[in-house]
Amino acid sequence: MPRRPAPVCEYCRVISPIPEAETCLACGAPLPPVNASVAPALSVVEGKQSPAPQKISARAEVKSPYEDLRTAGERADEAYTHLLYAYGLFWRVLADSFVIALGGLALGLLAGALGLHTGWGLLAGASLGAIVAWVVKGYLLTVIGVPAGILVGALLAAVPWLLGMPAAGVFFIVWAGALAGGWLGGLRPPFGRRRWPEKLRPFLGALGGLAMAALGLALGAGLRSAVAAWLG
User: Fold this and answer.
1) I want to staple 182 with a disulfide (CB 3.0 to 4.6 A). Which of 62, 88, 103, 132 is the partner?
2) Alpha-carbon distance 87 to 74, whole Å?
3) Domain, as residue range, for 152
């Protein structure tokens, strides 16, 4: 008996192992109808059995009734992908902006209050902003990481400072804690595989951290002057 050729799914291009199947076993999409004419497998010529060629007609180039449905599904998938990317990018930018502003201000304030050179505070803020924007993390981990690193650094530097460690050593320990909090717990995709907004973010983060560190330096210097005047 002539057999129906195995249909090919138009969506995932998988050949169905069951010729009579109406839906694809791989993705569940409806299978297109297959038109084929099969000649008898054997023909008798002069008392001998010889194989006869099978002729399968090409699928008529007629628009499938499922073509519009498939096209609409592909467009919906593409729109959903772009929407999901924009949603994730918005929350990541919001979390990174908050952390860079808070961390840059804290490091600048500490450098100014300790009377360190302005360059150290600016460098600390810029480096923190670049690292936070470079590493890809979840929103909650981004918001928690840098403040937790600054707190741990301050606790580690408290005892050495009470024992007479210079102010610069305290600042460097807190700075290292902030950088560790921004670096750990995230992914760092190669620069060449990132989209253009992802490639731009570290530079914008460095500028944001630099600006907030400058503000923190001014506030820290003012606080240091006020305390010195109050102590006489």
Assistant:
1) 132
2) 20
3) 82-231
Query: What was the pLDDT predicted at 120?
Result: 93
Residues 59 and 21 in one domain: yes
Tokens of 70: 């498939």
Tallying the residues shown for the chain, one arrives at 232
Instruction: Mark out the alpha helices in the chain (DSSP H runs).
Output: 67-113, 118-134, 139-162, 167-183, 196-231
> What is the 3-state secondary structure of 183-194?
HCCCECCCHHHC
Distance, in Å, from the CA atom of 161 to the CA atom of 80, rounded to the nearest integer, reads 54
Angle at CA of residue 126, ends 125 and 130, nearest 5°:
120
**Confidence band of 179 (pLDDT split at 50, 70, 90):** very high
pTM of the model as a whole? 0.63
Amino acid 147: pLDDT: 93
For 93, the token pair is 């930018």
Are the C-beta atoms of residues 4 and 31 closer than 8 Å to each other? no
Specify if 121 maps to a domain: yes
